[in-house]
């Protein structure tokens, strides 16, 4: 039997939302997923019984080489302030900054995993003036570096694995951990921002329930409307790397299906788009953020043709909060 892998989960500067999402893993639940993958959970702040000195003993045993650390997961950004001392976030009971523990444990781990956009790139915690000097494990926004540095490699010679998302989908986490556990996760499984390609090679646009409205550029104008939210409502699902509309939360949900625009939360810097999340910035009436891989001239031409051909059904339904005109019924032999 293959030996179990030891996983340690730490939480730093964040809201704990990725753990909240992870606890919603279904069929099976997260603990069953770890058990089936042969992963032993050394400690998790929300799922483990150990507190205080018991936790400190685990951390010291890892650093001293008494316990092997196969996977280190960090949720939340690294708090480096003030003045790179890390003293804005002390790990309770140890008398030392969390950032120092992350550094020590990272060099002991076979794999280092950033769970969520905060841990990966800094995320919400690093927004605004960033008074806590928050950053990601190996990125500071779009730039490589972060706490561990651009050249960091774990004991398995891997960079940090960035399971970005705000929050992450539970299966993005469990699938990646399972791939690591069976020895099937390499650098080739990561995109250029360190995200697992199992979800990052998709676009949120794929599987969107509003795609018929998008095709004809029949756009929503207010939050309750059924139409495409790209033109006016700030949706960037055509640019966002994730499979949210094909791998649903709790089997049935996504931001867009809940009536809210995609804000590209798997990308570095999503937290500061430079405009209101629910408004689409435009230049000369053309959205600034165009669909991935589409030249501007092509988009303008196709959008004009699409709008000219928009069926009356879609025009009316796009700005309504319910279907006002149902699709026509076509019977065989009739035109």
Kindly describe this structure.
This protein has helices spanning 17-22, 30-37, 52-63, 98-106, 117-121, 170-181, 197-200, 211-215, 296-308, 312-318; strands spanning 5-11, 39-43, 69-75, 78-79, 90-91, 96-97, 109-115, 134-135, 139-140, 143-144, 161-163, 282-283, 286-287. The chain is α/β, with parallel strands linked by helices. The chain folds into two domains: 5-198, NADH:ubiquinone oxidoreductase-like, 20kDa subunit (Rossmann fold, 3-Layer(aba) Sandwich), CATH 3.40.50.700; 202-320, Cytochrome-c3 Hydrogenase, Chain A, domain 2 (Irregular), CATH 4.10.480.10. It has a five-stranded parallel sheet with strand order 2-1-3-7-11, with helices on both faces. Strand 9 and strand 10 form a beta hairpin. Helix 2 (30-37) runs parallel beside helix 6 (170-181). It is elongated, with a radius of gyration of 23 Å. The model has no long low-confidence stretch (mean pLDDT 94).
What descriptors fit this protein?
335 residues, alpha/beta, Rossmann fold, 5-stranded parallel β-sheet, two-stranded antiparallel sheet, 13 strands, 13% strand, elongated
Strand content: 5-15%
Fraction of helical residues: 10-25%
Helix/strand order: EHHEHEEEEHEHEEEEHHHEEHH
> Which CATH class of the largest domain applies here?
Alpha Beta
Uncertain residue ranges:
none
Task: Return the CATH architecture of the largest domain.
Answer: 3-Layer(aba) Sandwich
The total number of structural domains is 2
- Fourth-level CATH superfamily of the largest domain: NADH:ubiquinone oxidoreductase-like, 20kDa subunit
How many whole angstroms does the radius of gyration measure? 23 Å
Largest β-sheet summary: 5 strands, parallel
Q: In order across it, which strands form the biggest sheet?
A: 2-1-3-7-11
What is the fold-level CATH name, i.e. the topology of the largest domain?
A: Rossmann fold
What's the pLDDT, averaged over the residues? 94
The rounded distance between the terminal residues' Cα atoms is: 65 Å
Strand tally:
13
- Helix and strand content put the structural class at alpha/beta
3D shape = elongated
What's the tally of helices? 10
